[in-house]
Amino acid sequence: MKFIAIVLFVLLNSLSSFSQTVKEALPQDTIIKDSCEVLIPDYFHAHGDCVNDQFCVYGKCIKEMDLKIFDRWGTLIFESNDQKKCWGGTTKGKACPPGTYFYVLHALLFTTKEIEMKGNISLLR
Asked: In whole angstroms, what is the distance from residue 80 CA to residue 105 CA?
């Protein structure tokens, strides 16, 4: 009897060793299917210590994307079509105040599935 494991591979270096450990612990005949889940954090700390300093979209199956971030008045303050380009909590070269911002993500996955995600992101300083 074969086991099927669905393993979520998050594109964070700190978790890569965990993913490898999970794969090594499974029986040899286990079939591993990578998840195409898109992950978006709830908050980030933009205070310059290089730990959780940017708001990024995570997911290894994203083929195309359009990310927009708005302030509480609905003003567009950040836009990106590049998954590697994260928001650092600034707009027009100035630091945004701590608070709640709104994002809209449209993405096309390599599986040809189209997704739309909307939500709040908290900027902490």
From this structure: 10
Element spanning 98, H or E: none
49 shares a domain with 24 = no
Indicate the pTM of the whole model: 0.70
What is the CATH classification number for the domain harbouring 67? 2.60.40
Q: Residue 11 carries which side chain, given as an amino acid letter?
A: L
Q: How many domains does the structure of the chain reveal?
A: 2
Burial class (CB in 10 A: 0-12, 13-18, 19+), 2: exposed
Question: pLDDT, tens digit, for every residue of 40-73?
Answer: 999 898 777 777 789 999 998 999 999 999 999 9
Tokens of 37: 């889940």
Full domain range(s) for residue 63: 40-124
